[in-house]
Design a protein that fits this description.
Length: 397
């Protein structure tokens, strides 16, 4: 029912407008109230009247949304996994009461500020600081590549304090807090990506998320979002496959025959449907592990890494099958092909997830230069976006 509901929403409301949004480079904000009514925001939270869906149903939401557009799925991933989840998991009662209901309906939009201009795969090096001044906190620093940054009413911002990295809630309009959009993007054009600045930005003492104790809390959020991306990637691949299949059956070349009659074309379609099926089965198992409390960060890395790679390969193959029509936005393939480049990179790049998996199977972290990698477990320097996720699970910090 969840899959069919979201599929109908995507077919009826998203597909008719998404190419225009992509061309214009605008986030389809007009869809936000309906996504709120459908409980797509914070769907796995079982509190504040939210549905508390299991892992498989939550994943199917992401799969169907990304059949529409990776930018739209990003919007929901950020709102759910990177904003509502940390507020619900690490926030005070007042913070939850203030934000969860409004974020659930879409009346308020959130963003998640971890990446900085000089620290992407390695957020452990972050320079943004929060220092105590009287009863307040004062933030200084900047964040880059932040989805929904200029749209957000509340930003979950990760900053270094005297006692480690902590999460803070910074509200739109706070003096010293600026946000500007990044322009010139050729990927995720139906999603807003921004830079955040903090210059002597004073926020109240109770703006810190009290349950945050270190960078591992930020990585717990990423783990939620990455789980959804494993499902979303397959949604993007499904859309490219179905478009290529229909096109191949209708496009006629050579003696009045559809191009689907050629063995080389069929092989591409078979490759796509085989990898999509394997990705769906992987997702189903990840969902079952999640629901039974046995999902480890490296399981999520396996899903994100494999399934986004499958989506990237399917986009390329589908574009080939469409010939020249593969490069125009009369068909969704070129948009998915451009979008998937962002998905391949964000939430831990393909290679970083490879290193998480490499550490999981060998016990040797290979994130740093070779001499550091040879050091015994537990003596590694500041955690990276990747290895801290594995470290959080294994206890290595
Ligand atoms: C559209 C978009 C939206 C985003 N939204 C958000 C958001 O909402 N919030 C947020 O905080 N961030 C966001 N990001 C940032 C994203 O998480 C980072 O881009 C990502 O973590 C990679 O960081 P980087 O771009 O700085 O690349 P780098 O870390 O500089 O990596 C560059 C290359 O070097 C490789 N590399 C790095 N370290 C290693 C290593 N140890 N071994 C081998 N190879 C390595 C990488 O795999 C990659 O190929 C977004 C990014 C994009 C593109």
């Amino acid at each position: 029912m969840v899959r069919d509901t979201v599929r109908a929403f995507v077919d009826e409301k998203v597909k008719p407008i998404i190419e225009e949004c992509h061309r214009a480079g605008r986030t389809p904000l007009e869809l936000v109230p309906e996504m709120g009514r459908l409980n797509l925001f914070g769907a796995s939270i079982a509190d504040y009247g939210l549905p508390g869906l299991g892992g498989v149903a939550y994943g199917l939401i992401m799969q169907e949304l990304e059949r529409g557009d990776s930018g739209l799925r990003s919007f929901v991933s950020v709102q759910s996994g990177l904003v509502m989840y940390p507020i619900h998991a690490f926030g005070s009662r007042e913070q939850k009461d203030r934000w969860i209901p409004r974020l659930a309906t879409g009346e308020a939009i959130g963003c998640f500020g971890l990446t900085e201009p000089d620290f992407g795969s390695n957020p452990g090096g972050m320079r943004t600081t929060a220092r105590r001044q009287g009863g307040d906190w004062v933030l200084d620093g900047s964040k880059q590549w932040i989805t929904n940054g200029t749209l957000a009413d509340v930003a979950v911002v990760w900053a270094r304090t005297d006692s480690g990295v902590r999460g803070f809630l910074v509200e739109k309009g706070t003096p010293g807090f600026t946000s500007t959009d990044q322009h010139g993007k050729f990927s995720l054009r139906a999603s807003t990506t921004s830079e955040l600045g903090f210059h002597d930005c004073r926020i109240p003492g109770d703006a810190m998320l009290p349950g945050t104790t270190g960078l591992k809390n930020a990585l717990m959020c990423l783990n939620q979002a990455r789980y959804g991306i494993a499902w979303g990637g397959i949604g993007s691949a499904m859309e490219c496959y179905h478009t290529a299949l229909e096109y191949a059956k209708q496009r006629v070349q050579w003696n009045g025959q559809p191009i689907a009659c050629h063995q080389l074309v069929q092989e591409k379609l078979v490759w796509m449907v085989s990898e999509i099926t394997k990705g769906q089965l992987l997702n189903l198992q990840l969902g079952r592990l999640k629901d039974s409390g046995r999902l480890a960060p490296h399981h999520v890395s396996l899903g994100k890494r494999n399934n986004v790679w499958v989506a990237r390969e399917c986009a390329k193959l589908a574009r080939e099958v469409l010939g020249a029509n593969g490069i125009v936005d009369d068909f969704p393939v070129i948009r998915h092909m451009l979008n998937i480049e962002s998905v391949y990179t964000y939430e831990g790049t393909h290679d970083i997830h490879g290193l998480i998996l490499g550490e999981a199977i060998t016990g040797i972290p290979a994130f740093n230069a070779p001499q550091a990698a040879a050091a015994p477990r537990g003596s590694a320097p500041a955690p990276t976006q990747a290895n801290a996720a594995a470290a959080a699970a294994s206890g290595v910090r």
